[in-house]
Amino acid sequence: MNRLTTVVAMSNVSFLIYVLMMFFFFTVPSASSKGDHRVPSKHVALFVFGDSVFDPGNNNFRNISNDSKANFWPYGETFFKFPTGRYTDGRILPDFLSMYLRIPLWKPYLAPGKHNLLHGANFASGGAAVLPEYSVEGPVSFSEQLSYFEDVAGLLKKQIGDEEAKEMLKRAVYLSSLGGIDILFSDVYINGTQVQRQELINMVIGNITQGIKKIYAIGGRKFAFQNVGPIGCMPVVRQILLLESVSSDECYEDLLNLATLHNDALAKAIKELETQLPGFKYLIYDYYNLLLDRIKNPSEYGFKEGLIGCCGNGTFRGYSCGVEPYELCSEPSEYVWFDGGHPTEHAYAQLAKLVWKGGQKATKPFNMKQLFELD
Q1: What is the pLDDT of residues 6-52, one digit of tens each?
Q2: Is 52 tagged catalytic?
Q3: What is the Cα–Cα distance from 270 to 169, expressed in whole angstroms?
Q4: How far is CA 367 from CA 45, 105, 214, 307, 349, in A?
Q5: Which of the following is catalytic: 51, 55, 286, 339?
Q6: Is 342 labeled as catalytic in the residue annotation?
């Protein structure tokens, strides 16, 4: 039986165990289950905002097309052995950070049932945009994620009291991955002038900084930013915009340039926030260059393939992962990309380690461990 036939058979089995496994693996007892709402003196929470690279399955609980979900086989095949809604074969970067923090793996914020909000919450949603004009109905936009965070802050005040909630929110870290969807949805990288491109970036960065100020006003002080990745190298982008040139090992430069423009503007804007907001601390994790190096030099990091997806259809397996007919590699850990736009668990594991305790080339001015330890 070949790999593709096996996948089809396993998809039926995975569906049968999906509901049970979602309950047993991700259900976290409520903080109220033992009647003790006190927060340990060194307790730190993590709140996650962003798009599909951080989404633990929130889109599963939205009235949205299956094209914007990852709740079918082979997503989740490597670690969970069933699809969780994560856009990869296993765990995503926030999962690895939760493991470093020794807290449960993320349950989608929108999932029904009890949530232990003392650990934080993950609001990220595949397809989430920053700008209102690109916040199409379906994914949880950045503004909506901020609204959910406001709700959580209010619940925490009721649960543990105003003062303890204030201290918890102050000690927490706020991790985000934003802006990539806005760049991809815009057509300025194809037809726009340099002025138009800069205007787009200014609007995106302006909305991000306004959101950060909102979190700050509620009580947040420590922020972690993942910059926009090398979106011009995504298999789906290469497949569509490079016209499936079989011999092509190039990335789409206009999108790479726009991502770089965004990342430079983000770094400048966050630096300015540091001067404006007392107690504001931050790190920026260089997702762009760390992922790009693995794409261009996969063998140096233990990969065999950096440009083609493990799962999908077309020359670069750039789209339709899990939708017949599609191809699936035998070993995802050999690939940087799992599908047309998302890294494999193996790639996320490497990157998360750098976010947690990497040096200045990966994350600065702090790494995540140092940011959590700051008073």
Answers
A1: 333 333 334 333 333 333 333 333 333 333 444 444 678 999 999 99
A2: yes
A3: 20
A4: 16, 21, 23, 28, 15
A5: 339
A6: yes
